[in-house]
């Protein structure tokens, strides 16, 4: 079980993650959505102890019973791969170009799990099979440039699974892939989480993929979790103005064409995520919010039923 | 397959020639290179003595061959020892960073600034001049060179995303250094080693010329050169032959190193 309480990541200019509280139980599948620059990656990195050197992490993060905020690299190393593992956006860059993909996956098995080379090979081959790599024996000997993007991402998922982690953080694992391949990787992640009762934190800005593969979801904006709840509930009945904006901005048939067949302009949330230093101290969404009130920019809204918004606060 | 650069090919041929000669001298030379034959001294080049004989009647060609062996052996040992220590220090500095990196690199700066010749003279004064002194002195000057190359290349590799991914998979600094960093800095290290080889051959010749390296009867191009110096007017060819050998060996390794650098330079690799 992983529990974050008031977890924050400060980066010189401001807070990329602000007071995030989160409980992850075995088998949970949690989607994380939000525009670029909302702190999704930074939250993931904080949960695996790999924030940039300049970042200051505060609050509390408990992996089972170990407090990891302030832990040194050595203690993190023990937890990584065993309790938390992470898969990144760019499968090509995340593989060493001069290493056979089989060796890449075998290394942690030998180093971490203390397996012999032969055992590690067996184990890595079965992982390849589990993540749906056809003809694992042949793939094993290939270099990253010899296999497709989808296969590379599967190799990296196998790498992340080597030490049977309790939580797998997948940071936009399908952004660099074709829609078709992306769909299958998304399904794979959901299946792995179910089969292994492994928790999955699925960071994505593909709402359809989140809808398909997760049960719960978080909406992040400016380092805050602005809304959380069951995925189906959030998607069908978004409450926070930011979530509403995000949902109406997604391409859907009724959004794309006018009734007379002309192309519609896709609705977007006006403006862009401001840089960290310019985020308002109160509600982070102040300044872009269509229903903003006078206190929004300066007063932090309290959480009500999974949402932080002054409007909803006032309504209850 | 693209065409290999000209410098690489010429370098490879010259290096091949030197190394093959050195290897051949282990099993065969026309004469025993130490065999004196005073009556036959200063013999001109002929089918009997291909490059003639020296002031003591020794076969010059056989001496050059045996000297090639010493040159290559000294350079190989010295560059290997200095390179291994230097690369290890550079990798260590890069893996740990912070204070350790600062200390290692400042030490490298200091030893880099320390005159190698002075070091060789000190060693020779304490232990007596020998090829071992030459090896140690040359190895010593190689340590900071390799430490710098290794650290600079390793620091680049440490920023790569696959290193990040390996860290996320729970691998520690030393495992990452061994499995990811070292294999990826092999190319610049090999290029540097080839260039250092050229410098080492020149250094061995210089040390032996100064009497700090090879001692008689151990053959050495540098020592042959210094012995021939007094006979310059009588028999200039005795200085020219070892001089040419030094030029060929040094040029060969330099060109090979340059060529390898051209081939392994990432900017050129991308074009292919
Ligand atoms: N290495 C870094 N140094 C300073 N600021 C950073 C760094 N990485 C990200 N940031 C900032 O942190 C904020 C959150 O970034 P990130 O977590 O990458 O967002 P997301 O993954 O949601 O797109 C952004 O404002 C970004 O500019
Ligand atoms: Mg991101």
UniProtKB/TrEMBL annotation, chain A:
Where would you find the membrane-spanning parts of this chain? none
Q: How does it sit in the membrane?
A: Peripheral membrane protein
Specify the domain of life of the species encoding this protein.
Bacteria
InterPro entries on file: AAA+_ATPase, ABC_Ni/Peptide_Import, ABC_transporter-like_ATP-bd, ABC_transporter-like_CS, Oligopep_ABC_C, P-loop_NTPase
Where in the cell is the protein located?
A: Cell inner membrane
Query: Any idea which UniProt keywords this protein has?
Result: ATP-binding, Cell membrane, Membrane, Nucleotide-binding, Transport
Name the family the entry cites: Belongs to the ABC transporter superfamily.
The name on file for this protein is ATP-binding cassette domain-containing protein
Organism the protein comes from = Sulfitobacter sediminilitoris
Automatic annotation (TrEMBL), chain B:
Its cellular-component GO annotations read: plasma membrane
| A Pfam cross-reference name | BPD_transp_1
Q: Which UniProt keywords apply?
A: Cell membrane, Membrane, Transmembrane, Transmembrane helix, Transport
Q: Where are the transmembrane segments?
A: 7-28, 72-100, 112-141, 189-212, 233-256
- Please name the CDD domains in this protein's record: TM_PBP2
Domain ABC transmembrane type-1, by residue range, is 68-257
Cross-referenced InterPro entries:
BP-dependent_transpt_permease (IPR050366), MetI-like (IPR000515), MetI-like_sf (IPR035906)
Cytoplasm as UniProt keyword: no
Which GO annotations describe the biological process of this protein?
transmembrane transport
**SUPFAM superfamilies assigned:** MetI-like
Q: Which PROSITE patterns match?
A: ABC_TM1 (PS50928)
Q: Which family does it belong to?
A: Belongs to the binding-protein-dependent transport system permease family.
- What's the protein here called? ABC transporter permease subunit
């Amino acid at each position: 079980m992983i529990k974050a309480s008031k977890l924050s990541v400060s980066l010189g200019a401001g807070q990329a993650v602000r007071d995030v509280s989160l409980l992850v139980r075995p088998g949970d599948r949690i989607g994380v959505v939000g525009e670029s620059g909302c702190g999704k990656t930074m939250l993931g990195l904080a949960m695996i102890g790999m924030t940039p050197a300049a970042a200051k992490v505060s609050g509390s993060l408990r992996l089972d019973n170990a407090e990891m905020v302030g832990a040194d690299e050595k203690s993190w190393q023990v937890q990584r791969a065993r309790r938390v593992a992470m898969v990144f956006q760019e499968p090509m860059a995340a593989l060493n170009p001069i290493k056979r993909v089989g060796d890449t996956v075998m290394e942690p098995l030998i180093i971490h799990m203390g397996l012999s080379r032969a055992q590690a090979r067996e184990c890595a081959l079965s992982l390849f099979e589990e993540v749906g790599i056809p003809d694992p024996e042949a793939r094993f000997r290939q270099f990253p440039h010899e296999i497709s993007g989808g296969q590379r991402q599967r190799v990296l998922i196998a790498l992340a699974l080597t030490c049977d982690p309790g939580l797998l953080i997948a940071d936009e694992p399908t952004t660099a892939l074709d829609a078709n391949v992306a769909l299958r990787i998304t399904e794979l992640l959901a299946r792995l989480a179910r089969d292994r009762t492994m928790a999955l934190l699925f960071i994505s800005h593909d709402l359809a993929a989140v809808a398909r593969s997760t049960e719960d979801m978080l909406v992040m904006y400016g380092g805050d979790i602005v809304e959380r709840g069951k995925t189906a509930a959030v998607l069908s009945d978004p409450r926070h103005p930011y979530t509403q904006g995000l949902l109406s901005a997604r391409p859907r048939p009724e959004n794309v064409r006018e009734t007379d067949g002309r192309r519609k302009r896709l609705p977007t949330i006006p403006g862009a995520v401001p840089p960290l230093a310019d985020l308002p101290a109160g509600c982070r969404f102040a300044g872009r919010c269509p229903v903003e009130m006078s206190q929004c920019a300066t007063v932090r809204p309290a959480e009500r039923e999974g949402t932080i918004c002054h409007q909803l606060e006032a309504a209850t | 397959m693209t065409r290999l650069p000209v410098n690489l090919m010429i370098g490879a041929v010259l290096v091949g020639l030197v190394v093959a000669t050195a290897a051949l001298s282990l099993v065969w030379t026309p004469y025993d290179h130490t065999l004196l034959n005073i009556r036959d001294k200063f013999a001109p080049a002929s089918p009997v003595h291909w490059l003639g004989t020296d002031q003591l009647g020794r076969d010059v060609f056989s001496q050059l061959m045996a000297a090639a062996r010493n040159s290559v052996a000294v350079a190989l040992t010295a560059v290997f020892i200095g390179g291994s220590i230097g690369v290890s220090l550079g990798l260590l500095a890069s893996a740990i960073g912070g204070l350790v990196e600062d200390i290692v690199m400042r030490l490298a700066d200091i030893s880099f600034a320390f005159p190698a010749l002075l070091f060789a003279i000190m060693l020779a004064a304490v232990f007596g001049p020998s090829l071992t002194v030459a090896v140690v002195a040359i190895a010593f000057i190689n340590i900071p060179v390799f430490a710098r190359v290794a650290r600079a290349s390793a620091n680049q590799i440490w920023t790569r995303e696959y290193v990040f991914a390996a860290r996320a998979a729970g691998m520690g600094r030393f495992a990452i250094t061994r499995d990811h960093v070292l294999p990826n800095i092999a190319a610049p290290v090999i290029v540097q080693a080839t260039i250092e080889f050229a410098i080492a051959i020149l250094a061995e010749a210089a040390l032996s010329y100064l009497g700090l390296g090879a001692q008689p009867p151990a053959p050495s191009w540098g020592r042959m050169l210094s012995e021939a110096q007094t006979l310059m007017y009588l028999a200039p060819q005795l200085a020219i032959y070892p001089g040419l050998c030094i030029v060929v060996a040094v040029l060969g390794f330099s060109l090979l190193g340059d060529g390898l650098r051209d081939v392994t330079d990432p900017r050129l690799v991308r074009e292919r």
